[in-house]
Amino acid sequence: MDIIDTILTNTYTIQDMRHRMRILKSNLENTLFGKVQTEILSSDDTIWLSSLTLSFINYFTKDNIYSSFKNIEAELKKLKILIIYLSFEPEQEQIENIGKWLRTNLTEIKLFDIKLDPSLLGGIALVKNGVYKDYSLKSKIQEQGEMILVEFKKYIR
Predict the structure, then answer these.
(1) What is the per-residue pLDDT across 14-54, written as a single tens digit (0 to 9) for each?
(2) Helix (H), strand (E) at residue 18
(3) pLDDT digits (tens, 9 = 90+) for 125-156
(4) Are residues 8 and 70 in the same domain?
(5) Which of 143, 109, 142 is nearest to 126 (CA)?
(6) Distance between CA atoms of 147 and 150, rounded to whole angstroms?
(7) Which of its termini does the chain have fewer beta carbons within 10 Å around, N or C?
(8) Which of 60, 77, 94 is the last residue of a domain?
(9) Quick one: 38 and 65 in the same domain?
(10) How many helices (H) and strands (E) does the chain have?
(11) Rounded Cα gap, residues 156 and 103, in angstroms
(12) Quick count: other Cβ atoms within 10 Å of Cβ 102?
């Protein structure tokens, strides 16, 4: 059983990963040590926790929980993250669709991070391996700015 793959099954963004790691750890501490869980879980969180198999949960013991989480966090830091700049905040269904598409078409990408850039027009910008690429209409307008101005000037007279 690969712990990272299990956690990543339907976790697509870095924010979701951090959140799920926190609630998983809290839930396991509650189960193993009887600690009181102070965070109120959403229905999505409860569904996610209940989707984890018994063998996954039983992997964690009082003796290995903290070292296991340390190892998981170290492995997560090694993952390649794609940064996606959007001009709007996507809904959960859109995030899931993006995540599924990325995993199908860019197999080395396991997680992505969404950043908002309201200046983008009709498209997205991406950062992969530290390289920024702007695929928005804004960048196309900037690239063709001189030609667009020349064409507009023809009609101004």
Answers:
(1) 999 999 999 999 999 998 988 776 778 899 999 999 999 99
(2) helix 14-33
(3) 999 999 999 988 877 777 777 777 777 777 77
(4) yes
(5) 109
(6) 5
(7) C
(8) 77
(9) yes
(10) 8, 4
(11) 49
(12) 18
38-71 burial by CB neighbour count: b if 16+ within 10 A, else e?
eeeeeeebeebbeebeeeeeebbeeeebeebbee
Shared domain check, 71 and 10: yes
Tokens of 70: 């340390």
User: Where does residue 3 rank: exposed (0-12), middle (13-18), buried (19+ CB within 10 A)?
Assistant: middle
**Calpha distance 72→60 (Å, rounded):** 12
* Domain count of the fold of the chain: 2
Separation CA 107–CA 101 (nearest Å) = 10
Based on the domain organization, do 90 and 137 belong to the same domain?
Answer: yes
From the number of C-beta atoms within 10 Å of its C-beta (0-12, 13-18, 19+), residue 99 rates as buried
